[in-house]
Specification:
The chain is an alpha/beta fold and 253 residues long. It has a single domain (11-249), classed as 3-Layer(aba) Sandwich (Rossmann fold). The protein has nine helices and five strands, in the order ααααβαααβαβαββ. Helix 3 crosses helix 5.
């Protein structure tokens, strides 16, 4: 789960629009918002993720489309020569119960509560994730889980994935205190240094819930024309996450 901050979104106006490793700080916008407004927006988003058929449908639909893209892109490629990159939090595993527990207690995210949550190893799979990962394996691909979970929590994340039976070939976490950007870890997958014996792998498809889960991308993309989104739905696939993300650092235009 990437770093995040409480927010005041259009969610508070429209109802809904459509793992941190350290405790987040408040943005200036949220610090000056009307009391309870950001919490209301967050609550609406959480209800949608946990209680709507639409969230499940979009997640399953996205993973089906991603697997179809993998099948097309991998045609004719030798088994074991290529991979997909998937984020962990809110992409293949679901942290919404953590949010529920914080809300019930009237608490905000802290490093201590986050670490305790991860160490429980109780996070369920995101709808569609298992079928996607299993499909990649059947097609002869490798799965690289590239997460911004701290390296010190890597063992807990791995145990959680294993308990769910989610297949993967390499798990790359963010070095404690290191850069959130994933480019160096994707490079390690490509040049064969991600894990001994894995070998170089061409990444064909990326799946994530944050714009930074895709190479070279950031929130500045929202100001660019639709032509800049050419890879989305082709090689890049987004799982919806209206609860938190790097978008919280970018106030609306």
């Amino acid at each position: 789960m990437p770093l995040r901050r409480p927010v005041l979104l259009l969610l508070a106006v429209a109802g809904l629009s459509c793992g941190p490793s350290a405790p987040p700080a408040r943005t200036a916008a949220s610090a000056t918002a009307a009391p309870g407004a950001a919490a209301l927006a967050r609550s609406h988003a959480l209800r949608w993720v946990r209680g709507s058929a639409e969230y499940r449908a979009v997640a399953v639909e996205t993973y089906r489309a991603a697997l179809a893209a993998v099948e097309r892109a991998s045609a004719g490629r030798p088994a074991g020569s290529w991979a997909v990159s998937v984020d962990a939090d809110e992409t293949i595993i679901d942290n919404s119960q953590y949010e529920v527990e914080l809300e019930e207690k009237g608490e905000t995210v802290t490093d201590a509560t986050w670490r305790a949550w991860v160490k429980r190893r109780e996070r369920p799979a995101v709808p569609g994730a298992a079928a996607f990962l299993e499909g990649v394996r059947r097609l002869g691909g490798r799965v690289a889980v590239v997460s911004n979970t701290s390296e010190s929590l890597r063992g807990d994340l791995a145990a959680n994935l294993d308990s769910l039976g989610l297949p993967y070939d390499v798990l790359l976490c963010r070095p404690d205190g290191g850069d959130e950007r994933k480019e160096s870890r994707w490079k390690a997958v490509a040049d064969g240094t991600a894990r001994p014996g894995l070998g170089p792998l061409e990444i064909l498809v990326w799946v994530g819930d944050n714009i930074q889960d895709f190479p070279g991308q950031g929130q500045e993309l929202r100001r660019r024309p639709e032509s800049a989104y050419a890879e989305f739905g082709v090689r890049w696939f987004v799982i919806p996450n209206p609860i938190y993300g790097s978008w919280e650092k970018s106030p609306p235009d």
